[in-house]
Amino acid sequence: MSYFSRCGAPAAQFRIWNQVTIKLAVILVLASVISSGSALAQKSLPKPLSSGPAGAQAVPTTPVEEAPQDPLGRDAPYGTVVGFLKAAEQGNWERAAEFLDTKRPAQEKQDLARQLKLVLDRGLALNLETVSKNPLGSPTEKFRVTRNEIGTALIGGKSFLILLDRIQPTAKRPPYWLFSSETLAGVPDLASNLEAPWIEAYIPRAMLEATVLGIPIFRWSVGPLVIALWFVLIWVFTWLLRLGAEWILRKARRQNATFARTAFLGPVRVLLLAYLVYAVAPLARTLVARQVWGDVAAGVAILGFAWGLTRALDLAVELAEGWFRKRAALHRIAPLKLAHWVLKALVIVASAALILYALGINPTTVVTGLGLGGVALAFAAQKTIENVFGTVMIVFDQPVRVGDFCKIGDATGTIEEVGLRSTRVRTLDRTVLTVPNGQLASMILENYSSRERIWFRHVIGLRYETSADQLRYVLAEIRTLLEDHPLVELGTSRVQFFRFGGSSLDLEVFAYVLLGDYPAFLKTQEEMLLRIMDIIHAAGTGFAFPSQRTYLAKDTGLDAEKGRAAIELVRKRREQGPVT
């Protein structure tokens, strides 16, 4: 039995093996998510033709007023190559024969299509995205304008050009592209001389011929072994890498050594997996499988780079935050974290777009399709969006900063963290108060830490027995105290006797102390109050206490003589004019 008849003819084996290959690729990318391999193949390839029998018309995807298109999607070289591969993967050799420029009988055309598929699978290294999508192709000086080179197949040390020709059947029908008759002339000889892979010489014939779901048994056993070997190699390499990182960080005596030596192990494993997938992709049996494996390798590599970049951002932010805390620059932490979140979001969005592009999915189409969903999500998450915008306002306006002592509503405490959604405050009771940033941005905040000076104001009550001269002495000495004190702002101090209280003579002491730190102000205030006490004691007076004094005296009645004099005086003034 020849290799072609054993491996090339049964289309079901080709199709099912391609599905299993794609499933394994999906497992590697999504880590335990198993999906249909044919679905991924359909995503990787456009749909230039319908899935019905040969000759069936595909549903037109362009407006009626546009130029007519080929019903099999052969308007451009890309559509011809993809359409042929898709029909061949489905085992629809009757349809696949429609992409060949030959006038052979129907059965011979189908056999030729099988042989061409085998030649492409075994010898052509091609990225389908490089094939021209222009209806006019990509003309070069080597060939006429109606011919397009797809690539060169290398089989048995020989080079074999794969060419397409642009056919114009009639003036009423649109032109289309077919595999060139010159290319097809050499396909049978190449296919007949193809040899089985070297590894099959060491596999028992029973394992080669016995199949499960159309796939040889030996391939069911080789796949899991290869994947297991990959993960063992990756684990060994990253284990050695971790030992080296621990030794270096131990020598450097870094406090964040635990994070630094473990942060990049995951991304390194993913990148190694991507490299191994890329290295094994050329060994796939079919051109479509190689394309899918290559796309998967690119997607896994992008995922690994994005993961590593986000971990690098985390490490950089951790180092910068520690540096700011050591230098008491706590106000820089919130902008740093906001920039961290924005950069990580950009990395995630960019990597998602690149992965979609690598898998052959147009990101613009995905974004357009998610438009209505995005609107619905925006309505559902409006509170979250409000909090995010509140975070932006807080970071840029900076009404509060990390480490500030503030009054927020009825609560008072120290700002511990300004997060993406909320701000955490450590209250005086040592509890943690969480305030959504959307509310915090609209609240009235009193930031005590923003004070450059603190108000010193006290009302001092002296006993009513204090004489006027004693009071003058106390006022003069307290004024001298404030004017000579180095921490009292010049021109702001004021000491006045301003009222007779219910049980005291009240003095107001007013000044601004040039301190922003409240504990330091309390020490200065204590020292000034003690000196005021010394001044009051030195004047021979004392502090008044709330009290009530009762006087007992004999009532002497009214002074009749003074009363008559006052009445007489008012009478004379009335005669002279109106009395006010």
Characterization of this structure:
It is a single chain. This protein is an alpha+beta fold. The chain folds into 4 domains: 45-196; 218-388; 399-450, SH3 type barrels (Roll), CATH 2.30.30.60; 454-538, Alpha-Beta Plaits. It is 52% helix and 13% strand. The protein contains 20 helices and 13 strands. The protein has helices at 3-8, 11-30, 37-44, 77-89, 93-96, 106-123, 181-193, 205-209, 217-252, 257-263, 265-280, 287-326, 333-358, 363-369, 371-380, 382-397, 437-440, 468-484, 518-538, 560-576, and strands at residues 147-155, 158-167, 176-179, 211-212, 215-216, 405-408, 411-418, 422-427, 432-436, 445-447, 454-462, 494-500, 505-513. The strands form 4 sheets. A 5-stranded antiparallel β-sheet has the order 9-8-7-6-10. A hairpin with a 4-residue loop joins strand 8 (422-427) and strand 9. Helix 18 (468-484) runs antiparallel to helix 19. The longest helix is centred in the middle third of the chain and has 40 residues, at 287-326. The model is unreliable at 1-66 (pLDDT under 50).
